[in-house]
Design brief:
This protein is an alpha/beta fold. It has six helices and eight strands. It binds flavin mononucleotide.
Length: about 170
């Protein structure tokens, strides 16, 4: 079965996962902005960084995917997907952008990425500041991790978590 890994990454953590997954399974791999025709492949494994609950590059890539394709979506974000509330929220946001023909059979996996607050682009730094202020106000168990690590370099990329992807 022919398959390709496509990724949407702004700061590199999603790219790291995508390239490692492609290496382990000997698959082609490309960034979403270099993908123009996916019709030669039966399976598309899309890795995308989460930005305000949007999967970077997914909307553009969906235009190249047909309902006959087997679609696997892997999100990479900071939120801990082992917390059911986080996982449900992300999954719901992803399914919202999927055309009806994909909603039922697309598989979704969630992995954790990295952040280096000092090296964010200005707009992202401002967005994260507002998210931080909200997390501080919320003061829940989940928001506390964000508050405690705000401003630091956080690397939660774990290649072992790629093993859950059923391909
Ligand atoms: C502006 C901004 C918004 C983000 N929004 C989310 C989010 O909604 N959910 C989440 O889990 N992580 C979120 N993150 C964290 C990123 O998903 C995380 O840093 C990820 O590793 C980025 O992938 P990349 O390095 O491939 O670009 C956000 C980060 C930034 C800078």
């Amino acid at each position: 079965m022919s398959a390709i890994v496509v990724f949407g990454s702004r700061y590199g953590s999603t790219k790291r996962y995508a390239e490692e997954f492609a290496r382990r399974h000997s698959l082609d791999v490309t960034s979403f902005d270099l993908a123009y025709d996916l019709s030669d492949y039966q399976t598309i494994i899309y890795f995308g960084g989460l930005y305000a609950a949007n999967v970077h590059g997914l909307k553009k890539t969906l235009k190249l995917i047909q309902p006959e394709h087997h679609l696997i979506i892997v999100t990479v974000g900071l939120n801990d997907p082992s917390v059911p509330k986080n996982a449900e929220y992300t999954e719901k946001s992803v399914r919202l952008v999927l055309p009806a023909s994909f909603t039922e059979h697309a598989e979704i996996y969630q992995l954790r990425g990295t952040i280096d607050y000092k090296n964010l682009k200005p707009l992202h730094r401002i967005m994260m500041h507002f998210i931080y202020l909200k997390a501080k106000r919320d003061n829940t168990e989940e928001s506390r991790q964000m508050v405690d690590t705000y401003g630091d370099v956080l690397d939660m990329v774990d290649f072992d978590t790629l093993e859950q992807i059923n391909y």
